[in-house]
Design a protein that fits this description.
- It contains twelve helices and three strands, in the order ααααααααβββαααα.
- The chain has 415 residues and is mainly alpha-helical.
- The protein has a three-stranded antiparallel β-sheet with strand order 1-2-3, with helices on one face.
- Strand 1 and strand 2 (220-223) form a beta hairpin.
- Helix 4 crosses helix 8 and helix 8 packs parallel to helix 10 (299-343).
- The radius of gyration is 26 Å and the shape is elongated.
- It starts with 8 loop residues before the first helix and ends in a 16-residue tail after the last helix.
Length: 415
């Protein structure tokens, strides 16, 4: 696995940043020992170029295609045009915000590297090569899946609506590919960073179990690393416990600082992407409803649009799952601390553990955008809101006046 060799966290995230550069989300790649202070003029040109490109292909697509005639519904054409506009605003927002928080994102990677160095001094190292391999493989799978879904979607759309001219202009396929990769990479960007933070919380919990008791025994204490794993007996002195505990407290506090940086750097983009996924969910659910009701030539497009929405929703759910894991790891170390308090016989160690318990109470890791926490409650809220707006759209569609085609003949109600 030599091609996937990673010496530090900088090597781990390098494949992701190479992908981000291709779609205007990151002009530079973090490098060990380098903290950028000034933004070079090339970065500004890079940002303006991609903003202009996304804007141009969006408006060319909107002006070239007559969505009311394509979808035979004013409501459906309006929501699709609106969703394209929201996609454009989301793409511009993500590019500008990542440009603004460029230095802080690099600081996140640097703090994770310093954490790994401190972790090595405590005789525990993380396998960066393993995560480098996983992230690279995930990116390749995501690239292939996104291209395949886009190809099937665009081919089906062009076959149904005879969009040969749109294919020859190349703007329409580029629009869908650009928006798809923008959404996917933004979600992947935030998810990778949150995973790296979560892995380090887990490592901190493992170090704590190495030095502090969870089950008292005669000659020391017993620590169980995980269910089903072989138990290990470890004995250390009170002085060693106090030294390690002070280091753990400092590292935990630094990880909490990293979580706050993650919330600051990614909350706006992830929130916009979640909102975009919600809008796409309402639109595609409405299209699927019309597909099953009217059973016309747009039936397969309605199904493909819904599959597209489920693909987007997968990334949102994965980010929510990773955010929930960080919260669980933060709570788990609190449980370990109180088990250690119950098992310890040293007054000095118990006092330090009580202080650490207060630190955990006041600073627990949470992935949030300020409006809501990224946990499973957010999913239930999205499902309920999608159902509500879907009902509203169905009522409008049923009661909306009939469309008149180009020749002046009226179509059937609701179509």
């Amino acid at each position: 696995m030599g091609c996937f060799q990673a010496n530090d966290v900088y090597d781990t995230v390098k494949p992701l940043f190479h992908h981000l550069k291709l779609f205007g989300l990151c002009a530079d790649i973090p490098r060990s020992g380098i903290t950028p202070k000034k933004v070079p003029p090339s970065n500004i040109i890079y940002l303006l170029f991609f903003i202009g490109l996304y804007t141009y292909i969006t408006f060319v697509t909107l002006f070239r295609h007559e969505y009311p005639l394509i979808y035979s519904s004013l409501i459906l054409s309006f929501v699709y045009e609106t969703s394209h506009t929201i996609c454009l605003l989301n793409a511009i927002n993500t590019m500008v915000w990542f440009y603004k928080t460029r230095a802080k994102i690099f600081e996140i990677v640097r703090e994770l590297h310093l954490f790994d160095v401190a972790l090595g001094r405590m005789h525990l190292s993380l396998d960066n090569s393993k995560w480098h391999f996983r992230f690279t493989t995930a990116l390749l799978v995501i690239d292939g899946t996104t291209l395949a879904i886009c190809a099937v979607y665009l081919w089906s759309f062009s076959e149904i609506h005879q969009m040969g001219e749109a294919w020859s202009s190349c703007m329409w396929p580029i629009l869908y590919l650009a928006y798809a990769f923008n959404f996917v990479l933004v979600m992947m960007y935030g998810t990778v960073i949150v995973i790296l933070v979560s892995v380090r919380y887990s490592a901190l919990n493992r170090i704590f179990r190495m030095y502090f008791p969870t089950t008292p025994t005669s000659g020391g204490f017993l620590t169980t690393t995980a269910p089903g794993h072989t138990a290990e007996t470890a004995v250390c002195s009170e002085k060693e416990q106090l030294t390690v505990l002070r280091q753990i407290k400092i590292l935990h506090d630094k990880l909490n600082d990293v979580v706050e940086l993650v919330n600051y750097c990614f909350s706006v983009q992830i929130t916009f992407c979640v909102g975009l996924c919600f809008v796409i969910g309402v639109v595609c659910s409405f299209g699927l409803f019309r597909a099953f009701i009217y059973r016309n030539e747009l039936f397969y497009m309605g199904v493909l649009n819904f599959i597209w929405y489920m693909y987007y929703l997968f990334f949102v759910l994965f980010f929510i799952a990773v955010g929930s894991k960080i919260t669980r790891e933060g709570k788990r170390i609190g449980v370990l601390v109180h088990k250690a308090i119950n098992c310890s016989t040293s007054t000095a160690v118990i006092n330090e553990l009580n202080i650490f318990s207060q630190q955990l109470l006041h600073r627990s890791p949470v992935i949030t955008c300020g409006l809501f926490v990224y946990d499973w409650t957010l999913l239930y809220t999205m499902i309920g809101a999608t159902a509500t707006y879907l009902i509203i759209l169905i009522q409008f569609d049923v009661s909306f006046p009939n469309l008149v085609n180009v020749n002046g003949t009226a179509t059937s109600p609701g179509v």
